[in-house]
Specification:
The protein has 43 residues and is α+β, with helices and mostly antiparallel strands. The chain contains 1 helix and 2 strands, in the order βαβ. The protein starts with a strand and ends in an 11-residue tail after the last strand.
Length: 43
Amino acid sequence: MDVVIYHNPACGTSRNTLALIRHLGIEPHVVEYLKTPPARALI
């Protein structure tokens, strides 16, 4: 299963969620949406 997180490193909730995912042994694909916004068709 591929896990994708749309991440904002300046957001504490986003950082905590990323840490939780990694704590579970999953290395997600991290998209920093402020640097690389998702395409309109994707959302």
